[in-house]
Automatic annotation (TrEMBL):
KW Transferase (keyword) present: yes
Residue ranges of every copy of the Glycosyltransferase 2-like domain listed in the record: 5-160
Transmembrane segments: none
Pfam assignment, any one: Glycos_transf_2
Cross-referenced InterPro entries: Glyco_trans_2-like (IPR001173), Glycosyltransferase_2 (IPR050256), Nucleotide-diphossugar_trans (IPR029044)
Name of the protein described by the UniProt record: Glycosyltransferase family 2 protein
Molecular function GO labels: transferase activity
PANTHER family: RFBJ PROTEIN (PTHR48090:SF7), UNDECAPRENYL-PHOSPHATE 4-DEOXY-4-FORMAMIDO-L-ARABINOSE TRANSFERASE-RELATED (PTHR48090)
Keywords per UniProt: Transferase
Amino acid sequence: MRKLIIIPAYNEESNIVKTVTAIQKNAKDFDYVIINDCSTDRTRQICEEKKYNIVNLPINLGIGGAVQTGYKYAMEHSYDVAVQVDGDGQHDPEFLNIMAEYLLDHELDMVIGSRFIEREGFQSSKLRRIGIIFFSKLIKILTRVEITDPTSGLRMVGKNVISLFAQDYPRDYPEPESVVAVIRRNMRVEEIPVVMKEREGGVSSISMKKSVYYMIKVTLAILIERIRKY
């Protein structure tokens, strides 16, 4: 069973060493690949000096393009399981083996690490929690599947979803839309509780100014995904 950690990284010079060190310590059964999304800081230099496994994108693709590159890498290298771990220190690699066991034991296509099942650790900002609750209710209405943390980037998937995401993955704010895409294809998705940390640095893909655009864009994308024919 070959398992890959996809680490999308944009300007993570202050966190990337901590992230990789934590993975090497707590997720020894996993390989990893850092997708450097054309960082403008020392992220690339640090990774190359440390001889980390890194793919350097020639232009900035955004979070969706960076993560999809990771899934393409996973498919091309015949990985059975892939999981996204953000490079900003929010995701704890200690949960990865638990997630892998749950994914395989329950024969799932995707398992999401949710911070809202046991409500431990960093719970995100108040504004973002409002958006999370909205998307959770919207997904429940449209798919009849309850996802408590639809914006969680800590998602582990099997081969079927690796293949799907390598071919088709949302560009902007992809998490809620991609979850709906998996559910709509009658694939099995469940959540397990995890503890997340507050980001230690780097650049968030969602600023305060982009919040309104984010809500409208993702809502429309989810609605379109719901009526999309395959």
